[in-house]
Amino acid sequence: MKYIQTEQSISIPEGVTVAIKARVIKVTGPRGTLVKNLKHIDVTFTKVDKNLIKVTVHNGDRKHVAALRTVKSLVDNLITGVTKGYKYKMRYVYAHFPINVNVVEKEGQKFIEIRNFLGDKKVRLVPVRKGVTIEFSTTVKDEMVLSGNSVEDVSQNAADVQQICRVRNKDIRKFLDGIYVSAKGNIVEDL
């Protein structure tokens, strides 16, 4: 079944500007600028006024209309990123061998260096994505905080760290060691 016309509306808060040219969205806010390329999704953007954008699909089938909500969520995430930012907290879990985590710089790029995971001599390196900052908590033991404007970069960096610390060739019900996301939120907390 074809849907003749389906719309979603995106409201833009004060202090944020959204520029759309050929389905490349550039969102500028108090925390910086984010750019997202949506040329692969066939939708129409209409700027109603400076505080409202309508996203429309003409003659779309069910999956094409479902992509409309995805586009709305992606733009909402960009707006949240430039106003509040994103913060992921990760905790180190170990039973015996304490995990050592540092941020090192090699050949001009930053890496998260993980040592002594399950007593391994192997040093695990995870590249830090552009725009992501890593801090180690001073109040909570064995906690790392990843923060940045782009939810995709911050969450992917957290996923990379968690994936590189998977336990292999052992019973994962017994060996629960690893680095896991303990909390997700915004840098600028709502009052």
Would you spell out the secondary-structure blueprint of this structure?
Blueprint: E1 3-11, E2 17-21, E3 24-29, E4 32-37, E5 44-49, E6 52-60, H1 62-83, E7 86-93, E8 100-106, E9 109-115, E10 124-127, E11 133-136, E12 143-148, H2 151-164, E13 178-185
Antiparallel strand pairs: 1-6, 2-3, 3-4, 5-6, 7-12, 7-13, 8-9, 9-10, 11-12
Protein name: L8
Keywords: Ribonucleoprotein, Ribosomal protein
GO biological process, one term: cytoplasmic translation
Feature tags:
191 residues, alpha+beta, Outer Surface Protein A, domain 3, 2 domains, 4-stranded antiparallel sheet, 19% helix, elongated
Strand content: 35-45%
| CATH-scheme architecture of the largest domain | Alpha-Beta Complex
Count of helical regions: 2
CATH class of the largest domain: Alpha Beta
CATH superfamily of the largest domain: Ribosomal protein L6
Average the pLDDT over all residues and give the rounded result: 94
**Head-to-tail CA distance between termini:** 45 Å
Number of domains: 2
Shape: elongated
Counting DSSP E segments of at least 2 residues, the number of strands comes to 13
Oligomer: single chain
| Helix share, percent | 10-25%
Radius of gyration: 21 Å
Order of helices and strands: EEEEEEHEEEEEEHE
Strand order of the largest sheet: 11-12-7-13
Uncertain stretches of 5 or more adjacent residues: none
* Biggest beta-sheet profile: 4 strands, antiparallel
